[in-house]
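Lay summary. Proteins are chains of building blocks that fold into shapes, and those shapes determine what they do. In this project we predict the shape from the chain. Here is one chain we studied, written as its sequence of building blocks.
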Amino acid sequence: MNSETIDVLESLSPTYIRTYVRSVDEDLIIVEGKSGGKKFRDTLPRYIRFDQECCYNIGLWLGDRWGGKSRVGIKNKDVELIAAFYWFLRKKMKQDSPRFLS
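And here is the predicted shape, written in a compact code that computers can read:
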């Protein structure tokens, strides 16, 4: 399988960048703002490499659609699968503290 790396910053609209992006470095994009009256601060990876592992994990999430619009998650009884998805979020998607929800 061929893999492609995208620059997430190039995929964001100029309006989104002006409104929400607070800082950009070689690895991360920090976004802040308000949504529904609540403040948010999120970290996005600057680059995403769409390799087999990334596509597999995105496929798990799309197949499950667990978590709603503003969350990324999967629901499964397989503890190893959940652990692998957690690692993917931490290492590949640069999420410092993904949470387990029941």
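What the prediction tells us: The CA atoms of residues 22 and 53 lie 29 Å apart.
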